[in-house]
Fold each of these.
Amino acid sequence: MAAGHSLETRGFDREGIDVRTVREIASAIDRLLTKYPIPLRGIVIGESGDGSANEPVPQHDIALWIVLDQAALPQSPGAARRRWFGRGFERAVFTAVVREYARVLDRAGDFRAHHQAWETVVTDSLNSRRTNYDLLDPAAALIDGFTEVNLRGKRAGKTAKLLHDALANAASGPSTLVDSTDVSLARPGR
């Protein structure tokens, strides 16, 4: 994963992160980067009790990082149970990675999809008198729609597809983000 996409990795040596989990994360990242290319710098696995990983990502780093909370990743089933729980484990890891990738896509698109997401969710709620998406949080609606499309494919709902497309299109457009590998640290005039 790191070599194939030139990504930095941090926290993959934590206790509880086994080879199977790493393989599933790598597979998900490869699939997502191939389908939705962005200048991703790396992936961090952290640990927290409140759902936000606290593995350090340099504060001065303006690059895009996927930050996975170790608590949000499922425990790999033991060898005897793999046969029965393999698909559920794979899907749970994929879902966690997709949700974080959606957050990074939103940032890569300079949050341009928020207005369209809000309009989509309002229209959905007016047409159906209820919605599965948060009217007050367009970022959450985008993440949920993007995740639904990546999990359900063609079976995803119309609103999910609209939210997914808004996020993917915003991220593929021009961005003001700078690839941190291109940033020179030299002082002007030197």
Note: The first helix runs from residue 2 to 5.
Amino acid sequence: MPPPAAPRQLPRPDFSDVPEARRRNMAAVRGRDTKPEMAVRQMLHAMGYRFRLQRQDLPGRPDIVLPGRHAVVDVRGCFFHRCPNPGCKNSVLPKTRADWWAAKLARNVERDLANQAALESAGWRVFVVWECQVRSDRGALAQKLADFLGPPGIARRESEP
């Protein structure tokens, strides 16, 4: 079996013309414990669900894992993961270096789809929460999560005794 192909890398552009304030802003973007993720975690915990975070043995290290329910909740930022909602204001492509950003964000979407497919093929159920959903109607989001996860409490998969 041949070794897996290395991920495609874009040539790194020259950032010498980027203002220092923009550099600080982009450096502050985190990959975990983001505000939307924390809000979803607090919501799930208040609803009575218990979960694990960032399981490294699963494809894409999902944000929230509920092993007893064989379910994953993935909280995605609208900008970096290209929210499919056409009304989302956070999913706008930057005008500066538009070609570079388009390629970078397209790779993110490809990776998200591949990770989701790998999780589903391994038997995991995946629920994607978008940043704009967290910011808008949390009550509706809580209901969607409850419908997806089932009643809180100890849950066992059907294959377990």
Note: Residues 37-149 form a domain with the Endonuclease; Chain A fold (CATH 3.40.960.10).
Amino acid sequence: MIRHRAKHLDTCHHLEVVFYIASIVKIQCLHNINFTIERHISESIILTMILPKTKALIPTILVFVATAALHPQRSLAADEDPLQDFYPAQVQASDFASDSLKKPRNTSNALGVAVTPANVLTFGGLNTQGVSAAGIDFAPHGLNPPHVHPRETEILLLAKGTLLVGFVTSTPDNKLFAQTIQAGELFIFPRGLVHFQLNVGYGAALAFCAFNSQNPGTSQVAKALFASTPPIDDAVLEKALQLNAANVQRLRSLISKT
């Protein structure tokens, strides 16, 4: 009876160790920048106190570690929660104000559009706040071409004009959701989906966007395919898009100028 109880307690100890290690790996996946110190402390504990007693459970531990490492997405839906009110601590009121979206931008380009970002790279007060914004100026018939924001959901407020806006769902459905909106109306672009805005009104248009990330990132579909550095091999584009070599080169030349 005593031997059975001791074995039971030893098993419980091993299970606690497994879950502890899995939780440490999970923390590292979610907070790989902020938990450097904890990582070193945890590694020391594991190497000197835990692993020598858990050799028999190494396969089980590895399974838990792999599971924890491969499933962090649920907690990474947006930027990490800040650990203080703002960063850096030594700031003044002007650091939280910006007039970057106040002035209209030049839309004299091939697409007839000018996007002005107000993210952490251009507006320091946004650091650790998990939000950002942008202003989009459209010339008549101007287009903000198909693109994605890999790290955020976007909400657009049309301040002036008329826009055709839309997004396409992920494969295999590839369903288009598009609508014409007027000044004062809103439209949502879900995170990571290809979307666009086209000025279909008679004059200029102006829109403002908000994002739930301090640095949402942008990847234009056409530029990613035809203007990457170094360029994607022609054979890939020819096969994927069913184009001949001449058309691939023509598109490279056109899109690199937009």
Note: Residues 2-76 form one domain.
Amino acid sequence: MALLVGGAITAVVSSSAKSELCDMIGNQESFVRASGDDSDKLVKIETVAKRIRTLAGRLVFSGEFKDAGVGFADSLETMVTLRRAGFEDTDEVSASTAARMDEVALSGVENLSQMQRSCGLLATGELGGAASATAEMADKSAQSDVRGAIGAVERYYSETGNYPITSMSEYNNGGSTPQVALGTSSQKITLSDKTELYYVPISGIGPYKICATNTGGSGKWYLYDSAKGGSVDAVSKPATPTSCA
């Protein structure tokens, strides 16, 4: 009897935790309440992360949801740590730190999307009540996708001796286009959910431009111009995205 009662209590606690988590990520007012009253934005994000971690720890029979909750909390807490250390823009830090920032952002979007799916919500990878946090993650996803596209285009050149000569515009809306093939080569460009990316060839031997934004983000655009080389820069929205200019 004690085992049955204990199991029933555990199931109730788990169900209550799932209900609260789903309410937090599906209802802006609930999320705002969970973030507390502190005026410091980073403290509010930390408060939410701790609550998500606590609730995820109470889940049973929900392995994917539990792992995603813990992963999302990890991403939020790591993002806060990086921000407090002064790391905000991947263009102003070392390559290893930039890679870590991109990794954290992508992990956050992926884990939040999995949580939304587990709750029966639309998997957008963004959270209205945590706009500042999730918008930043989405922005970093677009920036990371541009870097990934550069690598794919350069590998295409190594394979074929030329750069792709056909312009490309793709939008991964709701996971509809997670990868885009480059011609008949083996190379593919991977796009995060909600990333809108453009490849603009100048000629078959180069140079080229790649620009992208993530519609779940703050509206930032990122541009790489192979004629200039260097980093992937945050830029104003191109007047003509199809030409990245």
Note: The beta strands are 168-171, 179-181, 188-190, 195-201, 208-214, 221-225, 233-235.
